[in-house]
Amino acid sequence: MKILHWIVLVGAVVLAGCSSQPYVETDHQAGFDFASLKTFSVAETKQDAKENILISPFTLSHIHAALESELGKRYQPGAAGSKPDFIVSYHVVVEEKIDPRSYNDLYGFGYYGVGYRYPRPYFLGTNTGLRVYNQGSLIIDIVDAKTDKPIWRGVSEKRLSRGMAPQQQREVLSNAVVEVLAQFPPVN
């Protein structure tokens, strides 16, 4: 029975390690008074790079709405005709990446699989291969509206699954917006 508990525990740890949490990184202008920010505006994005033309305009409008919703919980939207305290811009980049992997082609039974080996019966072997995947990055920039200078940047990177339905993509992006903006304003 103890072995079963141990196997379940190891399986849970392995699955937790395989979960694809986004990597979030932020940077900001040192010395800026983020407490003075009260109103915001989200700028329309321009996805004009050839490699990113495949990003749906519906996905971009979803990100726009997610930004407004998340920032609206802590700040006031800028009134029409007036200048907000800060302007938020965002970009989505999808890059194809190559991940070199090595793996052991030991198959079998016995103690940790040592025993019958397929396809190399006389020695243990290691093969290498390449895995191609898409890496998605959501970049959120915040600019001081008075000076038009950047004051904060947040980037979320995540390995994307091929064949995700649009609803799944939007859910991943909504979570990325929440995780990046959770680190705004920065703690000095």
Automatic annotation (TrEMBL):
Q: Where is the DUF4136 domain?
A: 24-186
Q: Which domain of life is it from?
A: Bacteria
InterPro entries recorded: DUF4136
| Name recorded for this polypeptide | DUF4136 domain-containing protein
Origin species: Cellvibrio mixtus
